[in-house]
């Protein structure tokens, strides 16, 4: 089997270059020079973010197809742009590759990365390839644009503001749990114990392997000026709610009954001795968005995000004056656990 070491760095870069399509007009100089050159956004600000994706820390090759790895490395970065209300403009990719990586896997990684890049209009404008003595590493930098007064931050929430979340939560963490339990659930499908025909299982695996950054919802919410604060859910709802409230200088109450999840995530939460919302609260890998919205702006928020079909938003709690973070279940209020990380490969 041909490996990346057989081809060498130059041939790999040529292969990567050949796979990228034509660049949009704001890219003055793309891949192939010493640095990329892009036109600044007209009347806007640059929004920059970077995140690395490390084998056996953030993913396992036995659990994800190469295209999933490429997709997710980019998705986690685009999710951060979404949380800032920014529109992607360019991405950079550093690949640190073990010598024995098969060239077909290299091609798969690039394919998954570029397919999402095209959909998100985030052209790959440069990067770098180096040898790894150990794990496979993808290091991504994303550049976005936002209007000065439309940038979403974590810090604008006020007591009384409602918390709204996109999509359903806990699916990514459920996908990871399924893979941890059943090592034979490889990237190609299921097993007798967890047949791939189980729609809920397949959906959770898909969410874990290919999270969809909520770029459009983030952008529409930012443009509507109805949002006071925003964060993406890379490490679960509890951690995100706590970070947003701390940055805003408020406390936070999450309402257990309101948290949107799915039957598979609920079942796995209970199997591990928790309540049905355990994975939604403390699992990671959902990459949904959490918004703080003043009740006065609720209508305009719903009008803006309602036009992004498929994501849907649900009210899950509120910011409060008293510092701290709680989970409300009926009449009882318990402190939110500080977020354990055993569900996560990190
Ligand atoms: Mg984030």
What is the structure about, briefly put?
The protein has eleven helices and 13 strands. By secondary structure, it is of the alpha+beta class.
Written overview of the protein:
There is one protein chain. The protein has 346 residues and is an alpha+beta fold. The protein is 34% helix and 25% strand. The chain contains 11 helices and 13 strands. It has helices at residues 4-7, 9-19, 66-83, 103-119, 171-181, 199-209, 215-224, 237-248, 263-271, 278-282, 298-306, and strands at 27-29, 37-38, 44-54, 87-98, 124-132, 137-147, 162-166, 227-232, 251-255, 289-293, 313-320, 325-329, 332-335. The strands form 3 sheets. A 7-stranded mixed beta sheet has the order 8-10-7-11-9-12-13, sandwiched between helices. It has a 4-stranded mixed beta sheet with strand order 3-6-4-5. A hairpin with a 7-residue loop joins β1 (27-29) and β2. The two termini are 31 Å apart.
Write the SSE topology.
Elements: H1 4-7, H2 9-19, E1 27-29, E2 37-38, E3 44-54, H3 66-83, E4 87-98, H4 103-119, E5 124-132, E6 137-147, E7 162-166, H5 171-181, H6 199-209, H7 215-224, E8 227-232, H8 237-248, E9 251-255, H9 263-271, H10 278-282, E10 289-293, H11 298-306, E11 313-320, E12 325-329, E13 332-335
Parallel strand pairs: 4-5, 9-12
Antiparallel strand pairs: 1-2, 3-6, 4-6, 7-10, 7-11, 8-10, 9-11, 12-13
Helix pairs in contact: 3-4, 3-7, 5-6, 5-9, 7-11
The chain binds magnesium ion.
